[in-house]
Amino acid sequence: MDVVEVLFFVILELAVLLGIAVFVLDRKRRQLQAQVQELTREESAPESDVFESITSGYLPYLEKLILESRAQLEAAGDGGTGTETETETETAEDETTLAIRYRLSLLESEKKVTERCNDYPEKRWEHVTELFTPPSAPVPEDDDPELEEAESNNPLLKAQEQIKRLESFRDKFFSMKKQLRELEASRQKLTEQLEILMPEAERSEELRALLDTMNGQRDRLQAELDQLESQSDELAKTATQNTPVQEQENESSSALTKQIDKQNRKISELHHLVDDLNLEAEKAEELQSRFKQFELASRDMNMCIQVLEEENQFLQEQIKSLLELDENEPVYHSGASADAENPDQKAQLEALQSELEGKDQQIKSLEEKYASMEQEYLTLYEEANS
């Protein structure tokens, strides 16, 4: 028993020592890996500063090109001591120096644009137009043809002209692109409005059907009114011009005609209003009930017109019976002589007058009905607008 315990403690101590050794070795391994990585970075850092290509990084590559251009500019300023003549040497030095300076300015501008675009990429073209400004061409002092020919063959001036043309093309391109975006936005808005209006147009089919029914009733009433007017015209042809009964009949017919025309105008106005309005579902039911009320009122008006037509026929027969007198003798005489000569005619005229007064009352009642209908249409129009 004692031997087992001793062995157990020995094994436990060995396991603890083994764990400590593994921990220490792992820590040393990590330290060695860190040192190796640092050495690798130190060895690769000088090579990365070379930036032989653009894949090493755009900004470092631009810095490398700028340094090379500055070195070339310094070399061009120090050189030029050969066997050539002084004039040719100065001309070559000037052209080389201008080209190197222009290249250096372009590289510096490109570097600034890249740095700014990293912070504000949406303003890239603003930075480009601000920094890439081509230098103005030098003004010649004299009109030397050899100098003009040299300038025409100068690649720097040709490059400047090409840059100007490219800038004008760029401005036109972006203006057209902006207009295209505006047109696309307006088209999108119109599409959304059309999608909103399409369901309203589908719901207005029932209203159009009701309006067609109303138009049919209006045409029927207009036909009956035309028939009544034709009968009144025939009665006017047979009666004498100084007949007061006929004048009152014509006045009542004209008043009724005006009232019908007014109602037709109201119906046409209602037709346009209903076409322009986009009523909701719950208001469409209320509009249908109002149209039914209008249909009932139109039927009442039709019945009234039929009654008036019958009364006009009765009056026509009465007037024809009065016109059976001598054509040279007027139907109505002025003063008391007419009353003394023909008392029967006076009684008939009074009866006709009373009947016409009754018709006037009926016409007034019709006018009141139409006024109430107009008020209902105005109320409906206000509710639809609200």
Structure, briefly:
The chain is an all-alpha fold and 386 residues long.
Describe the protein in words.
With 386 residues, the chain is mainly α. The protein folds into three domains: 1-43; 54-136 and 148-198, no CATH class; 206-385, no CATH class. The chain is 84% helix and 0% strand. The longest helix has 49 residues, at 155-203. Keywords: Membrane, Transmembrane, Transmembrane helix. The chain crosses the membrane at residues 6-25. Residues 75-94, 132-152, 229-257 are annotated as: Disordered. Residues 85-94, 140-151 have a biased composition (Acidic residues).
Low-confidence stretches: 45-55, 80-85, 137-142, 331-341
Largest sheet: none
Number of H- or I-type helical stretches:
11
Domain module tally: 3
The amount of helix comes to: over 70%
| Order of H and E elements | HHHHHHHHHHH
Region (Disordered): 75-94, 132-152, 229-257
Transmembrane segments: 6-25
Keywords: Membrane, Transmembrane, Transmembrane helix
Biased composition (Polar residues): 238-257
Topology, please?
Layout: H1 2-48, H2 58-78, H3 86-119, H4 124-131, H5 145-152, H6 155-203, H7 205-238, H8 244-276, H9 281-322, H10 336-341, H11 343-385
Helix pairs in contact: 2-3, 3-4, 7-8, 7-9, 8-11, 9-11
Biased composition (Polar residues): 238-257
Biased composition (Acidic residues): 85-94, 140-151
Keywords: Membrane, Transmembrane, Transmembrane helix
